[in-house]
């Protein structure tokens, strides 16, 4: 079995353009990145460390623990090279495993070919050694084997996460066009919000931004809302070590952070959904929910903090024309009611954003799925500037 304290290469993945925020999270946990990639951060860490990374990270997708880096010329090499690895050190013969691969090699037409060959190699090794084999399938459960193969270089990882970390476990009711939790956390980090000053989220929808802000303010981490990770199915895993980490996680909670977080929406149903999600996250009492038009949102005069909008982008012409007036009204609201705050609009439609009518002081790039988005910053000066 694996020594959970042995340090090897670990690759933590995230959405493209979220890397700066993931890197800072990793540094804040006391780790030192070795390499920064477009969609993740590489560091040296143990499986014990991977447990902590999975429990704490808000902007990550997967935490991958490298077991081998191998030379692969073409598809005919896969079975032999994979079968030679000591899979019995990682996986119980009566366990379950799945395989996922990302391949850039001209000999492979689809990653499914690689997945099947890897599964066959692992199964045959067990059958030859023990006379029986573990179960396998496509579900992200049990031991998760991750392959990254580019040209002639393949990295073999144990995926210590399983189901993506992008979902933080509290959002049972997503609402209309929801923002994923990992993206919401990354955009809040991008605002450089100080958790001691107000965070205002008009047009809150299902409440993801406000809930993520409340989680940050109260020191609640995603691991509190999840009860299974793929590292639990790696041989050598200690449930006692995991429970100790969970106790530490619970002890970090700040029950009354004393910060004002406001979430408003004109839809009573949206606020109802947002409240239910916040209740699951145990932060309902930390958020001031308001049912109103965004322009009527009550915001504290002091101290001034961050106000953040995530309006619809508009996919059809009629919607865009209707939203143009909404974006103009957002600009009026920021100018007239939010002096001294730092204003932000997250949008996938820069033409609509021009209707805001305020000077943008910073444009921060993000992807929301396949939509090229910007987090636009507005300095809302008090008085004339």
TrEMBL record:
<dbReference type="InterPro" id="IPR000241">
    <property type="entry name" value="RlmKL-like_Mtase"/>
</dbReference>
<keyword id="KW-0808">Transferase</keyword>
<dbReference type="Pfam" id="PF02926">
    <property type="entry name" value="THUMP"/>
</dbReference>
<feature type="domain" description="RlmL ferredoxin-like">
    <location>
        <begin position="11"/>
        <end position="64"/>
    </location>
</feature>
<dbReference type="GO" id="GO:0070043">
    <property type="term" value="F:rRNA (guanine-N7-)-methyltransferase activity"/>
</dbReference>
<dbReference type="InterPro" id="IPR004114">
    <property type="entry name" value="THUMP_dom"/>
</dbReference>
<dbReference type="Pfam" id="PF01170">
    <property type="entry name" value="UPF0020"/>
</dbReference>
<dbReference type="GO" id="GO:0003723">
    <property type="term" value="F:RNA binding"/>
</dbReference>
<dbReference type="GO" id="GO:0008990">
    <property type="term" value="F:rRNA (guanine-N2-)-methyltransferase activity"/>
</dbReference>
<keyword id="KW-0489">Methyltransferase</keyword>
<dbReference type="InterPro" id="IPR029063">
    <property type="entry name" value="SAM-dependent_MTases_sf"/>
</dbReference>
<feature type="domain" description="THUMP">
    <location>
        <begin position="73"/>
        <end position="158"/>
    </location>
</feature>
<feature type="domain" description="Ribosomal RNA large subunit methyltransferase K/L-like methyltransferase">
    <location>
        <begin position="169"/>
        <end position="375"/>
    </location>
</feature>
<protein>
    <submittedName>
        <fullName>Class I SAM-dependent RNA methyltransferase</fullName>
    </submittedName>
</protein>
<dbReference type="InterPro" id="IPR054170">
    <property type="entry name" value="RlmL_1st"/>
</dbReference>
<dbReference type="Pfam" id="PF22020">
    <property type="entry name" value="RlmL_1st"/>
</dbReference>
